[in-house]
Amino acid sequence: MRIAMANRLTPYMFMAPAVLIMAIALMYPLGYMIWGSFREWNPSQTIGEAEFVGLKNYITLWGDPNFHESLVVTLKFAFFVVTLEMLIGVGLALLLDRNIRGMSILRTLFILPMMIAPVVVGLMWRYMYHPTIGTFNGFLDKLGLPRVDWLGEHALMSIIIADIWQWTPFIFILSLAALQSLPRSALEAARIDGATGWQQIWHIKLPLMMPVLIVTALLRLIDAFKVLEVILVMTEGGPGLSTEILALRISRTATEFRELGVAAAMSNYLLILLLFLTLGMFAFTRWQEARAARLNAMIQEEDS
Amino acid sequence: MAARQERQPVGFYAIIVALVFMSVGPVLLMLVNSFKLDVDILSGGTGLLFLPTIQNYETALCDILWYEIDHLDFCSLKFGGAFINSLIIALISTLLTLIIGCMAAYALVRFRFMGRDTVSMSTLMVRMVPPAVLLVPVFGLWNNEFCLDRDGLIGGMIRDTFGGRGDVCLAGTHSGIILIYVAMNLPFVIWILQSFIVQVPRSLEEAARVDGAGPFQVFFKIVLPLIKPGLAAAAIFTFRIAWNEYLLASALSDRDTRTVPILIVNNMSEFNVEWGVIMATGMLLAIPPIIFTLFASRQIITGMTAGAVKG
């Protein structure tokens, strides 16, 4: 009897620390934030002291053009970053999917940018984009081309380029792994049938890689909404509001303007947006996985 | 595959060289500049002709170098202290996350129990929460509610039970930052460790059980040693986040507990950027992750692909 009890309790004993910590430091805070978003709340108050104002914060934000602007900037940033990184990363993987010597050293060098602190990445790029001492304008000078105001009117493009530098390797490595685990027989068969390189990519490789590519894109999409430090260091959201992504706006509203209630409402809007994006991507994943499975089955049938 | 392998076109190598140059170039540029005087940096972009100096590093590490004690007051940048804070926070939170996360992952893989699916689902969902979203509640809670003198839920309970001093909040302590990092990293660690634990042969565990080992003995003596590569990967990712994180640390730390990223941002936003010193500080912050990458890139890639390719 005692042994039976112990067995039933074992999984809970293994789970308890994790559940406890996530409850105290993630779930409770998230609930607390939803609660706080209905209040006029500043950082020196406990939530009980803050005045309840109902949906006021949400309604204020809904009509706030600055909030709309950061929403648009955030979506633009996420869209361009994910699209361009997917295109470049998958393209490179297809190009470099060969057995060459030293590939593991190359991969080590490629993943270096991902491991460096976003704050440091921002600092490096801020230096390279510097209008007078920066590397890029130095190059342009040497080529006799006019200088570019990188962190001025082209600031959004510049932060997108910096993010591409840091995170394209992520997509490259994952696509390469996916490519190298494709069934050899399918590729062999296609080659014997006389498919050109392009046809192989388009009709065999890409469809079979699709499930991995979608998970990768989903991970990048979620991460694109987390980017903050790089932009903070490079442009501090400026010039104007042109690079003030939602995360930056939330942190500024909370710590500089000391309006925790408004910042909480903003965070909730962001969470809802992320939830929809994630669910949409999940549905798409299911559909694509089914398609890849069918393709796989077809190939195996042809083999036998 | 074999047919193409024999003749790699020149263009192919050109692309590889360009890629390596692009990904490593900015880091090298920072390294070079960290050995330049500000005069040299300001005089022009890419020049390689300069007299290397370690003055920037001396300025950055001023508070832990071998000079006289009274000199400490003149240090403009107290990097040493911040570096130690970063180390304490990153190492302790990594260790805690690994132990706790590994136990949870094991339970999720090996046992059927009530609430298993709920935990598993919410773990996945929590992964998408950006740190900026956590900022508001964590800032409020750590400063106002998780204190020993307020009548908040937990603070009040701790005070009533242990009779604390009455003015301590979690904000401004190492523990406060460690707690949020552990919580933030747990979902990810649980997620990638699951795919490693699944591969541990059940028969090994059952054999140990028959020999009379309890579930915790099985876990620590059989399972943990077998998933070392997974643990290494998880450790690197957790360390990387804890070491690099800025936003939550800046909201939760005070003068004595601030970490290196905060120091860098504070010095960047000043009107006159001292490029040389900033680059030296950046380099010092980048070195541990770079060393990890060079020595454990295999584990890093395994960890990355365990997340996406297998999951």
TrEMBL record, chain A:
It is found in: Cell membrane. Pfam families: BPD_transp_1 (PF00528). One of its GO terms (biological process) is transmembrane transport. InterPro entries: MetI-like (IPR000515), MetI-like_sf (IPR035906). Keywords: Cell membrane, Membrane, Transmembrane, Transmembrane helix, Transport. It is a multi-pass membrane protein. The chain crosses the membrane at residues 12-35, 77-96, 108-128, 155-179, 200-222, 260-284. The keyword Transmembrane helix applies. Residues 71-281 form the ABC transmembrane type-1 domain. PROSITE patterns: ABC_TM1 (PS50928). One of its GO terms (cellular component) is plasma membrane. Belongs to the binding-protein-dependent transport system permease family. This is Sugar ABC transporter, permease protein, putative. It comes from Roseobacter denitrificans (strain ATCC 33942 / OCh 114) (Erythrobacter sp. (strain OCh 114)). The lineage of its organism: Bacteria, Pseudomonadati, Pseudomonadota, Alphaproteobacteria, Rhodobacterales.
TrEMBL record, chain B:
The chain crosses the membrane at residues 12-32, 82-109, 121-142, 178-198, 218-243, 275-296. This is Sugar ABC transporter, permease protein, putative. The keyword Cell membrane applies. GO terms for biological process: transmembrane transport. GO terms for cellular component: plasma membrane. It comes from Roseobacter denitrificans (strain ATCC 33942 / OCh 114). It is found in: Cell membrane. It is a multi-pass membrane protein.
